[in-house]
Amino acid sequence: MSKHTFTKSVRTLLLSGAALAAFAAAAAAQDSAPETVMVTGTRIERPEISSPSPIVTVNAADIQASGSTNLGEYLTRIPSLKGSLNDFDTSGYGSPTSSDGSSLGGLNLLNLRNLGYIRTLVLVDGHRTVSESTGSAAVDVNTIPITLIQRIDTDTSGDSAIYGADGVSGVVNFIMKHDLEGISSRAQIGTSEDGGGSKFLLAFSAGHNFDDGKGNLTVTLEGAYQEKLNFTQRSFTKVGGRSFFVTNPVEFASGVDDPTQPDFVPVKNAGYITSGYHGAIDVNFDGVPDFQGNGSVYNFGTDIGNASSIGGDGMPYAEDLQADFQPINRRRIAEVSGHYDFAD
To answer: pTM of the full predicted structure?
Structure first.
């Protein structure tokens, strides 16, 4: 073999090896998936990051996916609205009153950062709406049709410079749908595994856009029903099912603080001696009952002080301190809305 032929063969072999190595590297690169995918740009609108102040946004899909038929109940999932008043807070035992003494029973009032519902401004499409609490601008969100909401923007910064003292703790702005075309309906039924507390929702909307989308007219009918769920319908809270820590009757009877005895003990049958299922009658005006309302002699049980006893005919703590976990709630909303854009 000549020197020229040998050199050409070596060169061909080297080129073939380099090509094979490049092909193997390319194949390996194709087989290995990238570990990180980074999005450097997007056209998706994000009002919560383009706004000069922090905004938490939930949209219609989020609300529907939650299965909730009650806006006040759903919005307490947002940390800044955790202190809001929902059906449980404004119904039954301990229902609060407004600053002027009027009842807040049945209202769902938003409370941003626990600064008070009177300091939380609720807007619909950026506009103020009618208040349901006497003496304040607090809005009952039960009056807003849940099926027409496009999104909810919660501005957690103080907006008193824009809206006045009503927006000290922030603003919750409900953005509604204004371009509905055709017919939209929704039916929903839900209940619990243990029974009771069922929820129903039926909504119907019809909308029409006209003049190349400049105008729209929408009619909505929405009805919701929430069944009552009482504490007696659950074994862990009904009378005899829930324990309360009360004064140790042994220490109370002796009047001595015994270090070998616990100061409090758990019992399931503690109650108030000043009332009972059948009433309580005090005939000698000494502050303690002598007879039940049906004429039977009143049994005090074991006295533990603070007008309380263990056992006896007194009103059980579990009966007196509990109410409905979920009260009855009926909502019927009829709304007609329209708009026309005369100019940009």
So the answer is: 0.66
